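Friendly challenge for the regulars: who can give me the structure tokens for this chain first? No prize, just bragging rights.
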Amino acid sequence: MHSIISGELVVFFEDECHLLWGDLCGYVWGKTNERIEVPITNERSRQTYYGAVNIYTQQCLIQASETGNSDGTIAFLQYLLSQCPNSRIALIWDGASYHRSQEVKQYLESVNQGLDESNWKITCIRFAPNDPKQNPID
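First reply, four minutes later:
Bragging rights claimed.
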């Protein structure tokens, strides 16, 4: 607990949200007996946000990403490191496939290379799958 209070260790709950939009809402004038078609250029736009809540300070860090994938996950891990350059990070997250990808594993190995596990720059702790008791965000 002392390392969390001192800022030596920052513990985050992390998750992503994927916002979808593109539904057509509105009115159009036309003859009641004729179907009116309105062309839509992008039927399904999507924006992903990575977010992490610091369990001690309650600060929420958010970063937009084009999609939830290995590249977006690594970019968010880099962002967290930039926000906590002098601290170790414990990241508590779900078991999304891109959290467990080879690319993310390689990135974490490169960040923690040569360090004792107790001194890793980023430690990832996975929730049990589909357990709302463990994951208060879901």
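The chain has three helices and five strands. The mean pLDDT is 86. Your move, everyone else.
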